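Q: what sequence does this backbone want?
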């Protein structure tokens, strides 16, 4: 069958398409259908994922898959969490020559540095996948990837906060490791494994 991928984030679209590739689904991006971006008014990843999936299913008349994800930093009480994308827009290191990198993750790092150099840097990426069908049915799958934050950013692959996140048990950031390997251990891979077991019966 075909599945609308209800994201306007090209990094996510690329990962979700790669993860779905073995299952013979035809992926249609929300962007290519010109679907609107609904306001993410939920207070949890699951609420926001469902808002996005339902909106795309209603507008397209097709099954739709949405991803709501973010970073929870232990020393910040789990923030930025559902506000991870909002925090990424802050320009904490304005005026720094490396600001293209720093713009994406400077606020989290700035807050950690204010807490002092011995602050616990553990964090986890979270991903909630929601599938909605035009008849109103839906399913939700949650995934996590524990790790820690590093500074300065390292690596060119992936997207978003990947250059500052080291998954547990590795030394490289998500932006330095082979992307096939990221797809075997990431928060998105964890949620996806549950989706596949439930939807594709393997
Ligand atoms: P859509 O809502 O259109 O899907 P978005 O970018 O607004 O796109 P979210 O609201 O779910 O998506 O925000 C997710 C944030 O978490 C965003 O800042 C991402 O950069 C970051 N993020 C999520 N998964 C990530 C990953 O695998 N690697 C790095 N950063 C990630």
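A:
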């Amino acid at each position: 069958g075909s599945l609308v991928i209800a994201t306007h984030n090209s990094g996510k679209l690329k990962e979700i398409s790669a993860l779905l590739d073995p299952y013979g689904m035809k992926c249609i991006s929300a962007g290519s259908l010109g679907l609107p971006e609904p306001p993410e008014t939920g207070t949890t990843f699951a609420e926001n994922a469902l808002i996005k999936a339902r909106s795309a299913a209603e507008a397209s008349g097709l099954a739709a898959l949405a991803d709501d994800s973010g970073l929870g930093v232990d020393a910040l009480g789990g923030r930025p969490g559902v506000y991870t994308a909002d925090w990424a827009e802050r320009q904490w290191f304005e005026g720094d020559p490396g600001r293209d990198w720093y713009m994406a993750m400077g606020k989290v790092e700035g807050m950690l540095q204010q807490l002092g150099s011995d602050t616990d840097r553990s964090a986890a990426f979270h991903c909630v996948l929601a599938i909605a069908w035009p008849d109103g049915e839906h399913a939700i799958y949650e995934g996590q990837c524990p790790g820690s934050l590093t500074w300065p950013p390292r690596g060119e692959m992936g997207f978003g906060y990947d250059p500052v996140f080291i998954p547990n048990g590795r030394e490289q950031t998500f932006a330095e490791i082979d992307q096939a390997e990221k797809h075997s251990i990431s928060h998105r891979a964890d949620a996806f494994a549950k989706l596949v077991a439930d939807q594709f019966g393997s």
